[in-house]
Amino acid sequence: MKLKPEKLYEEYVEDVILRCENAVNQEEQEEEELKSLPVDILIKEFERIILEDEKYRKSKNQSLFNNLKKRIIPRACCYMFWDTKEIKELFNYRKSKLTQINEDKILTEKQKQVKRGVVDAYVDITLENMFDKLPEKDKEKCLQKYYAHLVSTFRADQDVRKDIQKILEKDGTIDPTLDKGNCTKAIIASLIKLEKKYDIKIFKHLKRDGLENLLHPKQLIEYLAPYVKKSETGNIKDIEDIKRGDICILSFGDGPPRHAMMCYDFNSKEEPLLLGFSSNTLNYNGFYQNIGQTPHKGIVIDIQALINDVCKNKVKIKKKIKDNSR
Asked: Which range, of 213-227, 233-247, 289-303, averages the lowest pLDDT?
């Protein structure tokens, strides 16, 4: 049977979309159910699930747990009142300041990082002060809503991770100490499913001990270098011919590409819409304006070209076997 690359490509895209839609729907449904529970029960479940995550990653200092706990109040306040004028003005101020820092040609990246930290600290203190002024009933509601969001998010992430591990487990072991989230591997898992189903070699040099190289943005870019598309400006929005199914790896600030998302649709302006994992996201249109009011930098991996080449090579291999048998 002749392989049709367009069929395989569509199958890959739809599999990633389904995984993301399921995760997003699970989050929304569970959050709605959880936010009616008392705060003390939600806190216990949050602590249980975070510590379970730390155990999976073999973390000894509980850094994720401690960092999240430190910023619960400002994040809860922000989550509860995101659509209010006061919060919007605060974050417009933050964006303005970050733009100034990011565009400063004199500051080193380390100095910029320190200044961005000062801006974020100011925002957190302002949010904490806003929270302190709330009536006790509203404080409880605020925490209730945010803890429900946290628990549902981590549960969905863990379920995605378990689904991915079932797909990948025959190809090697994932190192939990290197696991920063599902963003890359939740997309790559669909390509590996395709590889197994059709007996093709998308990752033809993959060894059992090399699986890890496909599951992180930096290594994936190196591995699929022939299919990487860049722009002269470094901005993703300036890369030509972004297609449904392309893997877009975004940078944050001036850092290297580090967060993988997939283009799965386009809006009314024909701008790409992205989906992603950790956090589970649909309808993201961040090419044109990120947190610092500057376009996202990064690269794009052309998966359609990869699958086309894989199918051609498969046909060549089959033809060679047939010829040799005559």
From this structure: 289-303
Say how far apart CA 17 and CA 23 lie, in whole Å.
Answer: 10
Region 266-270 average pLDDT: 87
| Residues 248, 303 contacting (CB under 8 angstroms) | no
Phi, psi of 69 (to 5 degrees): -65, -35
**β-pair type (247-250, 298-301):** antiparallel
DSSP per-residue string spanning 147-202 = HHHHHHHHHHHHHHHHHHHHHHGGG----GGG---STTHHHHHHHHHHHHHHT--T
Q: How far apart are CA 301 and CA 221, in angstroms?
A: 8
pLDDT above 70: residue 22: yes
Give CA–CA dist 221/302, Å, rounded.
11
Contact 297, 236 (CB under 8 A): yes
CA-nearest of 201, 189, 181 to 280 is 181
The kind and range of the H/E element at 292 are none
Q: Is the pLDDT of residue 295 over 60?
A: yes
Residue burial 135-153, b: 16+ Cβ < 10 Å; e: rest = eeeebebbbbbbbbbbbbb
CA angle 202, 204, 206 (to 5 degrees): 110
Is pLDDT above 80 for 294? no
| CA-to-CA separations, 240 to 88, 235, 236, 265, in angstroms, rounded | 33, 11, 9, 16
Closest CA to 74 of 123, 134, 39, 133: 123
pLDDT (0 to 100) of residue 155: 95
Mean predicted confidence (pLDDT) in 95-109: 87
Q: How distant is the alpha carbon of residue 46 from its chain centre?
A: 21
The residues near 125 (Cβ < 8 Å, ≥ 6 apart) are: 74
Phi then psi dihedrals of residue 304, to 5 deg: -60, -45
Average pLDDT over residues 118-130: 94
Euclidean distance between CA atoms 4 and 141, whole angstroms: 54
Helix, strand, coil % (nearest 5) of the chain? 60, 10, 30
Query: Is the confidence at residue 308, as pLDDT, over 60?
Result: yes
